[in-house]
């Protein structure tokens, strides 16, 4: 059978009440036992002491008047224990209400005879036992004092019922105290449960609001306990979730813009190619030749765009393959400048050897040089610094530099220096691909203006630095 759901507050209250009640009951029981044992010990000691004093009085006054001096409290009896025979009450307290009848005294003494009158006890020794009155069941503490004359004993009967009533009153007093403490425990438990439940309820409400889309939901952090730590963790989670959602929205906007830019950049060469196809049948040879040149140019541009898109897709899928090897960046930069057809002054200091993918580093340098030629101006300089832990490559030109509004987004996809997006040789993906290639090596790519655009590539040495 499935148990009914119990709230956290109820469980906390039940736990506190259980602990409080148990602790109070144990303390009350322990206190009662300690006090009862001490009180019973004092009662027995007082009774034995009283009997010893009465025995002394009995011995000091010989004759019948000695018994009269004992009085009725406590009840007493002069008992003769016949050797091999029975017990006989020679004399007993009489003439007062509440005294135990002689027959009952004899019955009680016979029940404890072996313990109360053990053989071999000297005249100065006392013995005691608990017993009860046969007719009433009243508990009695019996003390025996041996007399010098063989077989004679002074026996005194101390009523234990009044003392037992006091112990009963003590028990009920402790029970009332325990109940009072339990009630206070319940009140304290309710207050504590409310204080604990309040921040947890706030967390639950905040979680519902966060789940409903309120990403700015936060809860106050009060104190330094576990609930406060939970609230802080919730706020951290909510902040990270908000950041993740913002990043997803940004990625979504970037994806939509990417699709639109791809469609635009594909449409431009395709439209040019479609417009040129009709010119291939023109009667003039010069017109046909020009049409063929345009088709070739746009086809190469389309192929380059497709190649760049595939490269971007590989980076997005995390499938960019790095085939690393020791690379002398000075030689690689000079070869790249020659391939691109750019005149650039190359200077190197220190050890500029890194462990990297030569093809991808070549792509980075080629894109930076092409960008310097297309948007900058001569002279183009390339400076390599291998004196630190990383190798730094700086490509600078003497052009107008990067417009300030483009600096934050220069490495985004399809970012161009021409705002009108007129037909240009670039696809707007070169710098984005260059940055992805540098990041794949664990490096960084940055740009700033200093008499022209200055691109700074920082590459770790990799295995060559180990």
TrEMBL record:
One of its GO terms (cellular component) is plasma membrane. InterPro entries: 2C_sensor_his_kinase, HAMP_dom, HATPase_C_sf, HATPase_dom, His_kinase_dom, HisK_dim/P_dom, HisK_dim/P_sf, Sig_transdc_His_kin-like_C. It is found in: Cell membrane. Its EC number is 2.7.13.3. It catalyses: ATP + protein L-histidine = ADP + protein N-phospho-L-histidine. Its cofactor is Mg(2+); Mn(2+). Residues 261-463 form the Histidine kinase domain. The keyword Kinase applies. Keywords: ATP-binding, Cell membrane, Hydrolase, Kinase, Magnesium, Manganese, Membrane, Nucleotide-binding, Phosphoprotein, Protein phosphatase, Stress response, Transferase, Transmembrane, Transmembrane helix, Two-component regulatory system, Virulence. It is an enzyme of class 2 (transferase). GO terms for molecular function: ATP binding; phosphoprotein phosphatase activity; phosphorelay sensor kinase activity. Gene3D superfamilies: 1.10.287.130, 6.10.340.10, Histidine kinase-like ATPase, C-terminal domain (3.30.565.10). This is Signal transduction histidine-protein kinase/phosphatase MprB. Its main location: membrane. Residues 194-246 form the HAMP domain. It is a multi-pass membrane protein. The chain crosses the membrane at residues 12-32.
């Amino acid at each position: 059978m499935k148990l009914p759901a119990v709230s956290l507050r109820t469980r906390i209250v039940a736990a506190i009440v259980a602990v409080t009640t148990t602790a109070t009951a144990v303390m009350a029981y322990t206190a009662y036992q300690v006090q009862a044992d001490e009180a019973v010990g004092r009662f027995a000691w007082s009774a034995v002491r009283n009997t010893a004093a009465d025995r002394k009085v009995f011995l000091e006054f010989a004759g019948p008047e000695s018994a009269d001096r004992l009085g009725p409290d406590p009840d007493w009896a002069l008992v003769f224990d016949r050797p091999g025979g029975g017990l006989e009450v020679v004399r007993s307290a009489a003439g007062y209400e509440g005294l135990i009848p002689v027959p009952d005294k004899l019955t009680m003494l016979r029940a404890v005879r072996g313990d109360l009158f053990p053989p071999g006890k000297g005249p100065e020794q006392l013995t005691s036992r608990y017993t009860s009155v046969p007719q009433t069941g009243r508990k009695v503490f019996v003390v025996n004092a041996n007399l010098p004359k063989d077989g004679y004993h002074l026996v005194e009967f101390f009523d234990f019922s009044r003392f037992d009533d006091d112990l009963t009153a003590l028990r009920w007093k402790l029970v009332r105290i325990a109940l009072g403490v339990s009630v206070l425990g319940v009140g304290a438990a309710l207050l504590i449960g409310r204080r604990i439940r309040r921040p947890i309820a706030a967390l639950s409400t905040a979680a519902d609001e966060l789940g409903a889309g309120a990403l700015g939901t936060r809860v106050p952090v009060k104190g330094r306990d576990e609930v406060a730590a939970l609230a802080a963790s919730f706020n951290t989670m909510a902040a990270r979730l908000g950041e993740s959602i913002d990043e997803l929205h940004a990625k979504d906007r970037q994806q939509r813009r990417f699709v639109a830019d791809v469609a635009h950049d594909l449409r431009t060469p395709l439209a040019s190619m479609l417009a040129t196809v009709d010119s291939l049948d023109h009667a003039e040879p010069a017109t046909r030749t020009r049409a063929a040149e345009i088709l070739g140019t746009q086809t190469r541009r389309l192929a380059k765009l497709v190649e760049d898109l595939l490269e971007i897709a590989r980076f997005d899928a995390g499938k960019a393959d790095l085939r690393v090897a020791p690379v002398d960046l000075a030689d690689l930069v000079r070869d790249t400048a020659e391939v691109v057809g750019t005149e650039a002054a190359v200077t190197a200091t220190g050890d500029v050897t890194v462990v990297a993918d030569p093809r991808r580093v070549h792509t980075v340098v080629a894109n930076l040089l092409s960008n310097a030629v297309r948007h900058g101006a001569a002279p183009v300089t390339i400076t390599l610094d291998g004196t630190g832990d990383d190798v730094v490559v700086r490509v600078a030109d003497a052009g107008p530099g990067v417009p300030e509004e483009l600096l934050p987004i220069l490495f985004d996809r399809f970012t161009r220096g021409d705002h009108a997006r007129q037909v240009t040789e670039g696809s707007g993906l070169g710098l984005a691909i260059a940055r992805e290639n540098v990041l794949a090596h664990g490096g960084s790519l940055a740009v700033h203006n200093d008499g022209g655009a200055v691109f700074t590539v920082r590459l770790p040495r990799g295995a060559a630095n180990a």
